[in-house]
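Consider the record:
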Amino acid sequence: MLRSILRRAAATSPIAQPWYLSSTANFSSSKTTKTNVKNEKNRKKSKSKGGDAAAADESAATDVEAALFEDGSRARRLAAEENDPSLNIGPNGQPLFTSTPSLSELTRKDSCTYFKFKMEELNEALPEGLPLGMVKEFEDSMRTAVLVRQSFLDLRDNFRRVVDPPMLVSSTKDTKVRKQIVLDGPVSCGKSIALAMLVHWARDEGWLVFYVPRGWEWTHGGFFYKNPQTGLWDTPDFLKFNETRLKQLPCQIFDLIPLGEGAGVGWMKDGTDTMAMPEGSSLFDLVDTGIKHTHAAVGVLVHLRRELSVVKDIPVLIAIDQYNSWFTFSEYEEAVTVRSTRPIHARELATVNAFRSMMHDDMMVGAFSHSTAVGKLRQQLPNVPAEARVSLPRYTLDEAASVSHYYMRQRLARRESFSEESWKKIYYLANGNGSEMRWLMPFMR
């Protein structure tokens, strides 16, 4: 995998690091110590009040949480139960985990089952990092498994039909093929996870995928300056691609690449403001140039976007998470007078300007993120096809049933308290919100 082109070289604030999974992780909870301390305080409080009912209830609730996370005992129990087939039973006696070996082979029959990932393969397929929602799911459930949802299968099959159109074309609305998609939907409906799974699948298929898991970082923090050649603001960022694929793809556009201000080193001392790629260069050579020459970082990134549009040998997919942050103002400001500044819009940033538009024939998918909420956007976004927006739903009742049985299997909920009535109460209380259901499971009575 390639190193970063340039990553916030002159940033003055702390840099958010990508989320990765360690192959040696034991999924022990970070709140173990805090839980034990709180549990002890509640026991003393209950004892001092002579069995006060409210204190006893609070202590009992904390006992449940402590029992689930205390000293890694839950992880040890799960390890001991790993090969017990009697525990891998979902709703209506159906298997809780799918036996399908790859994301490509999943079918509708696998809906509402869990697909297991290997941590090493997951980190290799998504070297840019995992979405926070996926990491939290893995940490809380203590297993690298994701629910197979029909919404993901529909998304995957849409792009599969783009590359390999079916022999028989249906005229139904549900089978309409879209080359550009914007994933929208309520908070915690799984947009980022669906996008990450799509990227994983596409790379398994041999596609070249440009994946940006944190689009918000393209408009916030780091080094930025105005390039007088383009009139746009340069904000250097990073790329990670499959090295072998890039070496196989030749550069097809040989326009001069504009040079900008290097991160922390200023402009070129000899006054050079452009550079050219030698004939016979590959896309790997192009990206490597941006890595080695800080003055060319942004120019290479913008040039690479044009190169991706003319690649015909293999399918190319552009996948942007936190896409909504590219339609509002960045945190950067331009000095107007000595005492005033104006906010710089995301469209004025060179990198965002190069990748934001969906008015082309390339395959592209962007996912909105409410964790980086930027305010309510209008329904019809500029440079986005009117029919591109697709709304992902929260958990259906069938999906919630599988999720609840899975959390019980992973000892996130107590087995003696688990019942259909209990998990349905949690489902309706959370209104299908996945993260809220996961948080409420330990409180099941």
In short: Residues 19 and 144 are 14 Å apart (CA to CA). The first strand starts at residue 114 and ends at 116.
